[in-house]
Amino acid sequence: MSGAVLIKTQSVGAVRGERVLFKALSLEVRSGETVLLRGANGSGKTTFLRQLAGLSEVASGAMTRVAAHHWLGHTNGLKAHETPRTHLKHWARVWGSNVEIDGVLERMQLKRPADVPCQMLSAGQKRRTALGRLLLVERPLWLLDEPFNALDTAGRDLLAGMIETHCAGGGAVIAALHGDAPLAASREVAL
Amino acid sequence: MSGAVLIKTQSVGAVRGERVLFKALSLEVRSGETVLLRGANGSGKTTFLRQLAGLSEVASGAMTRVAAHHWLGHTNGLKAHETPRTHLKHWARVWGSNVEIDGVLERMQLKRPADVPCQMLSAGQKRRTALGRLLLVERPLWLLDEPFNALDTAGRDLLAGMIETHCAGGGAVIAALHGDAPLAASREVAL
Amino acid sequence: MWSFLANPHRFMGFSRLAVPICFAIGALLIGWSLYNGLMVVPPDEAQGGDLMRAMFTHVPSAWLCMGLYAGLAAASFVWFVWRHELADVAARAIAPIGAGYTALCFVTGAIWGQKGWGQGWHNLILGDSRLMSVLVLFFLFLGYIALRAAMETRQKAAKAGAILAMVGLINVPIIKVSVDLWETTTIHQPSSVIRIGGAPEGAEAEEGQGMNPMYLQQLLWGFGGHGLLASALIFMLMRAEIYSQRSDRLLAARLEES
Amino acid sequence: MKASPAPLSSAFRQALSEAWAGGSGLLLPLGFFAGTAMLIPFSLGSDAELLARIGPGVLWLALALASMVTLERVFQADLQDGALDLWIQSGDSISLIAASKTFAHWLISGLPLVILTPAIGYMLGVPMSEMLPAMLGYAMGGITFFLWGGVAAALAASVARAGLLIAVIALPFYVPAIIFGVRVAEEGLNGVGLPFLGASMLFALGVAPPAMGAALRLAAE
Amino acid sequence: MKASPAPLSSAFRQALSEAWAGGSGLLLPLGFFAGTAMLIPFSLGSDAELLARIGPGVLWLALALASMVTLERVFQADLQDGALDLWIQSGDSISLIAASKTFAHWLISGLPLVILTPAIGYMLGVPMSEMLPAMLGYAMGGITFFLWGGVAAALAASVARAGLLIAVIALPFYVPAIIFGVRVAEEGLNGVGLPFLGASMLFALGVAPPAMGAALRLAAE
Ligand code: HEM
Ligand SMILES: Nc1ncnc2c1ncn2[C@@H]1O[C@H](COP(=O)(O)OP(=O)(O)OP(=O)(O)O)[C@@H](O)[C@H]1O
Ligand SMILES: Nc1ncnc2c1ncn2[C@@H]1O[C@H](COP(=O)(O)OP(=O)(O)OP(=O)(O)O)[C@@H](O)[C@H]1O
Ligand SMILES: [Mg+2]
Ligand SMILES: [Mg+2]
Fold this sequence. Notes:
The complex is a heteropentamer, with two copies of chain A (191 residues), one copy of chain C (258 residues) and two copies of chain D (221 residues). Chain A is an alpha/beta fold and 191 residues long. Helices cover 27% and strands 28% of the residues of chain A. Chain A has a five-stranded parallel sheet, with helices on both faces. Chain A has a three-stranded antiparallel sheet with strand order 2-1-4, with helices on one face. Chain A is globular, with a radius of gyration of 17 Å. The relative contact order of chain A is 0.22. By secondary structure, chain C is mainly α. The two termini of chain C are 41 Å apart. The longest helix of chain D is centred in the N-terminal third of the chain and has 34 residues. In chain D, helix 5 crosses helix 7, helix 7 runs antiparallel to helix 8 and helix 8 runs antiparallel to helix 9. Chain D has nine helices and no strands. Helices cover 82% and strands 0% of the residues of chain D. The radius of gyration of chain D is 18 Å and the shape is elongated. Chain D has one domain. Chains C and D meet through helix 5 of C and helix 2, helix 3 and helix 6 of D. Bound molecules: protoporphyrin IX containing FE, adenosine-5'-triphosphate (2 copies) and magnesium ion (2 copies). One adenosine-5'-triphosphate sits at the interface of chains B and A.
C-alpha cells in the first residue's frame, strides 16, 4: 500500500433507469495493485468501470483521476475492415507510440492472422488484438472488463503475465471478473 | 454409448481464406452425451459448430443431421429494442411453443430486467436471455459456442444444471469451451 | 420567479392553481377576441372579407410559435448548463404545443388566404418565403419530438434534445435570412402591427392595408388569451410528466424492496 | 420448410415493432416525406406551374430514398446481432421471412407517402383528378422499391458500410416502376401504365423473395 | 486536449479507408450520382428544356441523400464496436475527430458529384457557363450537408434504426445551403449567393463539430 494513488473515488453512485445500481462506493487504487470487481450479472461492474474511465457520468460522489488509463470493455473496438496490424498501427499513431507493431503482434501470438480483416477473425483473435493495444503505450492504470473472455488457456496465461508485469512495474489494474481468475488479486471489491 | 445417434460427421473439413482449418473430422454424437470442443483461439471450433448447425457449408466430407437442434453462437441474437420478455415471446411464437414465458424468466433469474430493452442490459443478462431460448422448445441437440462467457457464478451453475438435465433426459450437447468447465464432459474433441 | 419555481414541489403547488386560472382567463380572452373578431368588427374587404377574421387566431399563433421555439431553446440551455430537471420537463412540454401552434398558424393562414390570394394560391405555399420559414420551424419542432421519442432513457432524451434545440435556434435566423433572400415574390403582407400606434393615419391608409385599431385590440386580446392557453397546456403536460416520473420512482422503490 | 403462418406473422410483428421503435411510430415517416416535399421548391424554384408538373416526379425519388435508407440496416443488423442465424435455422423459408420483414418496413416507411399524397399534391397544385392514380402508383411502386431494395440490402449485408452500394445495386431495378408509376399518375387508371406497373410489382413479388433468401444465406456463411 | 495533429490525421485516414473499403473506392459514389441523374428523366419526362432547368436542382436532393445514407452508419458503428469509447478517452477533442471523419466521408461520397457535374450537366443540357458555379455550389453545399448530417447522425447514434430520424433532423438544416447553392448556380460567382453559401458553410464548420462532439459523448454514456 505504499505506491502512489492512481485513482480515487469517494462514495460514487450510479442510477440506471429508476434503479439505484450502487451507492457510496469508495475506492482508492495505488500503483502495484490488482483490484478485482466482483458481483452478480447486472450488479453494476461495467457501469462502475465506465465511470472510472470517464465514459459515464457519476450520479453522486466524486472521482479523482490522477493517472492515464487504458480501457478494454465488453466490445473490442475493432472495425470490420481493419486487420490486427492496421488496427494496432492506427492506435499507435493516435497515441504517438513508437512501439514496433510486429513485436506486439508476436507477443499476442497474432502473427498468423495479422493481415486478416477483423470481420473474419475468431472471437479470441479479436480479443487478443484489443489486448495488444495495452502494449502500445505505457499507461499506469488498466481498466479491464472481463478481459479473459474468449481467450484460450495460452491467452489467459499471456494476459495474466502481462498484468503481473504491469503491476510489478508500478502500474495498477482494475478488472471486472467472474469465476476464478488466473491472477493474484491484491484486493476484491464486491458490488 | 447406447443412445440414438443425433448427429454424425464423416471426415468433414473447413477452409478459410487459403488456409485449411481442419480436415477429416469425424464425430458421432448420441443422446446423453456432452461433447466439448477444445482448441486454441482460431483453431476452428466456431467454424465447425456452424457447420454442424448447417450455417456454413462443408468443404469436404459428409454430415448427417438426425435431430433438431438449438443454437447459441458468440452473438446472442437479441435486437436492441427487444426486452427479454418480448424476445422470448417472439421465438416461442415462431417455434410454436406454449411454455410460460414467466417461468423461463424466473428460471433464468431475469425477473427484474424482464422489461428493460436489451440495449441496456448487462452482458450477463443478455446471455441469460439467449440461454432462455433453450427452454422454449425441447430439441435433442444443443450447439453452444462458449456458453459460459459473461455468466456469473450463479449463472454458470444454472447453465451446467440445464445441460445436465438436458443430457439426462436423452438430449446431447456439443459445446466449444476454453478453460475449466463446471460440467462433466463425456468426451472432448481437440481441434 | 424562475429560480423560485425551479423546485418541482413549489412548481407543483404553483401550477395546481395556475393551470385552471390560465385556462379560465385564456378562454375568456380568446372568447372575447373571437366574439368581437367574428361577430362585431366589420369585415375588411381588402383583405379577404369575412375570411380575414381568421386573423384573430392567425397572428397570435404566428407570434406564439416563434416565441415557443425560443422558449424551447432557452429551457434546453438552462437544463444543459445548470441541469435543472424542471427545465427539461418544460422543454419536453413546450415542443408539442409549439408544433401545434405552428400548425395552427399555417392552417389559419391558409383559410385566410383562400380568397385574399385568389383561386389556386395554394400552389404558392411551397414557393413563398414567409410560409416556407414557418414550415421549416415546424420541422425543427418535429425533429425535436422525434429525437426525444427515439432515445431510450429520459436522461439521454433530455441531453440529445437540448443539443438539437440549441443548435436549431441558431439555425432559425439563418433560415429566415436565406428564405428572404430566396427569389420569391412573397404574397404575404409585411409586419404592420408595430406601426399601428406610431404611424399617422394617412400613412396607413396609403398602404391600403392599414390595420383598424379595433382589429389591433382584438389581436392583442387574442394574443394574451392564446399565450395563457399555451401556458396552461404546457403546465399541464409538465404536471403529467412530473407525476409519471414520481410514479416510476415509487414503482422502482417497491421493486427494490421486493 | 413448414407451412405454418406463425413464424411469418412473428417476423412481421417483430419487424413492425422494430420499425416503430426506431422512430416514434408513423410521425417520422410522415415527417420525412413532408420534409422532402418541402425541399423540392428550394432546389427547383418556386414556379407554380413547374412545381405542379414535376413535384410528383421528385416524390418518386423521395420514395426510393426512403426504401434504401430504411432497409440498409435491417439485414445487416440481423447479421451482426446473430438473429439471422436463428432465422436461417428456424426451419421456415428464409425467403418468406425476409419478404414479410420487408413488407412490414414498407408499411411503416413507404405507405405514409400514399397517405400524404393528397396533402402534398394539394400544396404542389397537382390537379385533383391525378391524385388517386398517383396514390396507386406510389403504393404499388413503393412495394416494388422495397422488395428490390431488400434484395440489395441482403446482398450488401456483410459489407460494413453498404449505404451507397445498396443504392447502386437497387437503382436499376427501380427504373421500370418509376417509369410506369409516373405514367399511371399522368394518364390515369385507364392507361397502359397501370397493368405494366402491376406486372413489375408482381415480378418483384415473385423474384425478390428467393433472391433475398439466397443472399441472406450467403451473408450468414 | 492535446494539440498534436496525429490523432486527427489518423482518424481521417481510418475513416477514409473505411469509406473506401465499404464501397469499392470511388466507383460506388460515382455510380450513385450517375444513377440518380439517370433516374431524373424517367421520373420527370424527357423535355430537354425542363431537364436543363431542374436537373441540377434534383442533384441537390441526391447530394442530401448521399450525405445522410453515408453518415448514418459511421457513428453508430463506432458506438457498437466500442471504437467510440476509445476515441472519447484518447484525450483529443472528440469534436475535431468527428469533424475529420465527416470530412473524409465527404471526400469519398460528396466530392464525386462535383467531379461528375460537367458530365451530368452535359447530359442534361445545362449551359457551360453554369458549370463552374454549380460545381462550387455542390462542393460547398456538400460540406455543409455532411456536417449537419453528421450532427443528426451523432444525435441518433444510439437509436437502432435511425435512417428516417436522421433525415428529419437534418433536413431543416439543409435548407439554407440548398437555397444559396441553387442561387450560386443560377447567378454565377458574382451574385449574392456565393458569400451567403460561404457563410452558411462557415457557420456549419463552427457549430456542427462541437454539437457532434457533445452528441457522441452522450451516445457513449
Ligand atoms: C399558410 C399561410 C400563412 C403562414 C404560414 C403565415 C405565417 C405568418 C407568420 C410567421 C406571421 C408572423 C410574422 C411576424 O410577426 O413577423 C404572420 C403574421 C401575419 N400574417 Fe400570416 N401567414 C399565412 C397566411 C396569411 C394570409 C393569407 C394573410 C392575409 C392575407 C396573413 C396575414 C398576416 C398578418 C396581417 C400578420 C400580422 C403581421 C404583423 O403585423 O406582424 N397571413 N403570418
Ligand atoms: N433503463 C434501465 N432501467 C432499468 N434497469 C436498467 C436500465 N439501464 C440499465 N439497467 C440495469 O443496469 C444494470 C447495468 O449493469 P452492468 O452492465 O454495469 O452490470 P455488470 O455488473 O457489468 O454485469 P455483467 O456481469 O452481466 O457484465 C443492469 O442490471 C441493467 O439491467
Ligand atoms: N479469409 C481468411 N483468411 C485467412 N484466415 C481466415 C479467413 N477467414 C477466417 N480465417 C481464420 O479462420 C479461423 C476461424 O476460426 P474460428 O472462429 O472457427 O475459431 P475458434 O476456434 O472458434 O476460435 P475462438 O476460440 O477464438 O473462438 C481463424 O483462425 C481465422 O483467422
Ligand atoms: Mg459487464
Ligand atoms: Mg469461436
